Amino acid sequence: MRLTDLAVIAGYLILITWFGARFRESQKTLKDYFLGGRGAPWWAIAFSIVSAETSTLTVIGTPAIAFSGNFTFLQLIFGYLLGRIVISILFLPRYFRGEMFTAYELMQRRFGPRVRKFTAGTFLVLRALAEGVRVFAVSIVISIILQTGELASIALIVCLTLFYTFEGGMTAVIWTDVVQMVLYVAGALISFFAILHLIPGGWPHVVAVAEASHKFQLFDFRFSPTLAFFRRTYSFWGGLLGGCFLTMASHGTEQLLVQRLLSAKNEAESRRALFSSWALIFFQFALFLTIGVLLFVYYHDTGRPAPAIPERTYPEFIWSNLPPGVAGLLMAAILAAAMSNLSAALNALASTSVMDFLKPLRPDHTEAEYLRFARYATVVWGVVLFGVGLMARHWGSVLEAGLSIASVLYGALLGVFLLGVLTRRPGQWSAIIGMAAGFIVTLLLRTRVAYTWYVLLGSSATLAVGYLASFVLNENESNQLAD
Fold first, then answer.
1. Does the pLDDT of residue 216 top 80, yes or no?
2. Which pTM value belongs to this model?
3. Domains of the chain with bracketed CATH
4. Which of 55, 70, 110, 174 reaches 20 to 30 Å from 300, CA-CA?
């Protein structure tokens, strides 16, 4: 173990924890703790959105995709833009109609309290499972640095992130996200040039080797109305439609990211943050895919065996080949991505637990008591994520595992939001039946189609079954959202 690198990493962990905890004094109300008092500028929220949808899965998983494959993963990002356009038209105006703390308050307005709890409960399960994969992913990095077991690695990162999230709430989450995103993107740029420097022939040689292996292939326009087409993970049509529906679900219905949109001063700033985040995410994914290509060329030229686990390729290369101090900085950058995402998840899980379950059940408490409950909920979810992270060790490729787990539940969640926004007739029982159908369809098809199609299929089933069920149940509920 190199003391210089360890000192850099330890210094980062101490400073970011201290920085986040400093926001405790500004946390006086639930609005402060869960929405940052709606005082953050749009550009900071944009950075926070990107940090929330980025994690160690992205940092170590995306280079592994290009190392083993090509650039076709980037087709999803074009769908991300289309999804943001739909969100800005369908969901944002409704979220800023009154003061909301969670996405699921919208479902109570449309369908009633049962659907609110059903959708909020879906989010809690979804985020706990998906975040557990991300927690495990960071243990890969820490175990490389400290040569520790996975248990100790997961415990370390959860405890440090839990501390400043517990203290500083959403304000700490947003501003530590800004710092951490700057750090991990800067780290990626440094690693890009560091790896390129180690390849004789430089960039022209990289292009020659990569093109010969079709590493820069971006689009796959092949289409056929067969099951084989839907099993292909990264196609243009799967990327455009799958990425669109995935973003509509994650940024439009899941509290993790909706919470950031609600933290903006107004709807216009929320929309500006949403679209700015797309430009950042496109640049980020393109950068990490390019790093994967560089690593492929390096291993190709040197003849060295690549790590058995693809996700170890990038962090192991950094730790083994870069100078002391630089390696520590880049490892700290990877940890930054993990901590920013984990802190976002902890605060979102706590806000849903308190605002969608506890407060409606026990409405007679004071603001100070609810704030205390919010901190307790943050701790409880920290323990839960630690446990799920341990189980996630056996779930396969970390990036695709995280996305596929989320996609299974996203379909039904998005479908019921669309049912509420686009239709007037269905009531709460139709919505619940529709969600159940969406879950079942996605589970039945998940081994037959690629995960990029999960959300589209699940949301379509929810929307169709929910609407048809309203005729069987003879429901006809008009409301303010359908107007």
1. yes
2. 0.84
3. 3-396 (1.20.1730.10)
4. 55
